[in-house]
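Researcher: I'd like a structural prediction for the single chain below. Treat it as a standalone chain; there are no partners to consider.
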Amino acid sequence: MIKEPYQQPQPQGGQITPFLQFIILSVGTVALVFVLSLVATGLIWAFFGEKIFTDALSFNTQNPKTGQALWLLQIIGTTLPLFLAPVLFAKFVVNEPKTYLKPAFNFHPVLLIFIFAIMFFSSPVMEVLVNINEKLVLPDSMKALENLLRSMEAQAQKATGAMLQMKTIWDMLFAVLVVGLLTAIAEEFLFRGALQTIMIRLTKNPHSAIWITAILFSAFHMEFFTFLPRVALGVFFGYFVMWSGSIWTSVWAHFLNNATQVVIMYLYSQKKISLNPDDQHVFNYQSYALSLIIILILLFMYRNIAKGKSLLLS
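Model: Treating it as a single chain, here is the predicted structure.
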């Protein structure tokens, strides 16, 4: 049975307002990212030298050590601050770490199987959203912004490509650890932990809070042309946490999504599979419809089990 079924967080006496919490968390996160990114770039200069430093900042993939420097920047300058920000906020600002981080494993293990199934069967739906997103264009008056967004996304893809040049299985396992596990933990503690809790208290509506958090989660990645599928993932993650009461359900889902992409990229680069991970025209319309139906059924079953309504848990 679920030990502590989900309940909407209630404001505590004398607590700072949710809006001010949002400002503090946002400013604190940006500040930590800025400071620790400076630390990371200093370490790159110290350990790798000026040439690697400049190659890393320009994403020069011709230099084999660029990837190592970028990993250092990723872990210290991004992953670490995204984890520290919600933890420090929950502990020292609001002093409610259990409510804002939801670190307890207070859910039935079968939910992890349902999450695996939902993530597996969601691929066609995600493909539809990617294809829709790719066709979206901004008005002519915002063409400069669109060009900027395209340039930023190209740079992000270039950085990812430099880090994910996986020549051995050990390279792949390292990427799974960092991109799959550590990134999942950090981002979920920040978004589905602290931020979603703030939004629930701000809007007094958990459904609105989940969607707002998912939109902010997608916007945070600054990749406009994969915005919609990332919003959908954020919504899935949000409901996993809301219904289960534990952050580890969304961490598991996030890990599955990221790790799967890393493994597929590795297998494709090693010519172990022929499926191009960048190909977004794999499924047909029947697959799209079936995927949506299966996801809705699985989500309904997940919700009932998480709330203790299923006979499986009696």
